[in-house]
Amino acid sequence: MIKFQIIEGEQSGECFESDEAVFTIGRIDNNDFSLSDYHISSEHAQVFWEDNQYIFKDLRSTNGSVIKRGEDLFTVNGAHHWELPLQQGDRLLLGAPHSPVIIECKKVASPSFVDESDKKTKVVLARDKSQLETFQEKALDDHNLARIMYRMVQTIGKSGLRLSDVLDNVAKAVFELIKLSTNVSIYLKNRSNRFKLKYSCSRQGKEQSNGSRSVIRLVLKRKQAVVVADAPEVLSDSESILAADIKSVIAVPFWHKGKISGILQCDNRGSNGIFSEKELEYLTLLSYQANLAIQNARYFGQLEQKEKQVESENYYLKKNRNIFTFNDIIGESDEMHKIFEQLKKVLDTRVSIHIWGETGTGKELIASSIHYQSKRKDKMFVAQNCAALPENLLESELFGHEKGSFTGADRKKKGLFEISDGGTLFLDEIADMSPSLQVKLLRVLQEGEIRPVGSTQVKYVDVRIISATHKNLEKEVENNNFREDLFYRLHVFPIKLPPLRDRQGDIEILTRHFLEKFNRELKKDVSISKCALEEMKGYKWKGNIRELENEVQRLVILADSEDTIKTDNLRAHQRKQTSVMGRKMYDKSKTLKELVGEVEKIIIRQAIKDSGGNKTNAAKNLGITREGLYKKISRFNMEL
Known about the structure:
six-stranded antiparallel sheet; about 40% helix; elongated; alpha+beta
């Protein structure tokens, strides 16, 4: 059993204990161990008994989990692992990183059901790794055994490099070598250092659900190959063993670099009797050759996976080469500084970020900057516009598909979730995602599971989701256009980007930035007049930064190499609201001559200002002579 006590949190002092094989920890009431703290996820973690130990598994919670063991801190949030064995005295730090709920592991002991089942398991024979060389020497001296082993090696050698084929041929070799065997199970260690059943089959070729977990624990504990019998007591007399109704098992470890990397289990479930010492030695020898083939197949599988990942990453890197940080984002306004300060606080958390802003405000740029300043920066940043593809194509793009899963699927394809595993996936225009895809996205956020189109296999990914839309997502929920449960998963940390018209102080900086950019691209030296710049600052940019960038690009393309962009070069609708004529409204108390005179004075003042006080250059820019300019200044009695 295991016992927890809450040390810090709203329920400080409360205890929880369990003798079950598995139980859950979370905020909602249907968890076995319910915690009321708001920062705990609804289904935060799971604790289960496996491999003779209790294991803590984070269920992809929003804030992750930390296990404190003495002075050491182990983060359980997918950056390194999702699972970690528990020890007595461990402290669980769950919820908000700055003020977590702290739970101490007061007691860790085997559950009662384990003790009962293990009473029936008796070790009849055992051999350790050091005796493997002795078995190999026997095989060299025993020509009959050498011939048998050579045939077994040939059987395994025909498997090729596919792990499934190798495991299948290992089982065939076991059935041929051990005549008493009825079932074969093969366990291999995964990245979490847990032994998972990778293959199970009967002599008739039927798949079996599992082998004996108690025998696996026995091999790992003793670090030996064993023959065990399901008997009430140890039977040393061979005649009584044969006479008894006993089912026996051989379990042999695979050794790799001095550690157990897997276990080969061979069962006798069909007849009385028990495996002999000779059969234990045979299977130990076979395991040595089988392990070499299995390791080669696993390496080959990893290499194939890496090649596919590199191929996919290269494709997306070609489409997205720019790497940005907050320093690369142009903006000096208070609004933008506040956003940067907010984002710095969540860079390295697993919190989902939702960016809301009008089209063209730079949502993808912000998302990219978050990724490349976080600890995920060495992994992929992938962006997808959910409104750009129809539902069936978007599903394939996000989740991938199997070959032949639909018309045109002529090859297997990895989805964006798999490509961005360990990194960030930016989903733009999330409000336009179909209801059925919203359900699948919710599954990824809750369980970390994806299932490619046409596949029955589930894959697990660790991807940070940053979503964005120009629509008000809360109103979309109210109008039943967007799932409420998905909204709360995505809307953990909302950011509203202000439109450019509310950042007028940034318009000049952005204009000069784009001017420099397109001058460099087009190899020109175009400048912009202060008057034209004032017009641009006063315009309400409906397309925001994207519209401003496109307009500057157009102006640079149309200008000669060393031209100055003037007010007249702007589009009519961009200058009509702030132009000189627009600012001087009709005044019925003044004559037309008087109104035109006032406009002329404003233009002359601006021209002289733009030329730095040089009246000759001002006259030239106005298209009149220097004398003509002086006459106008005198006529209007202007003080300059």
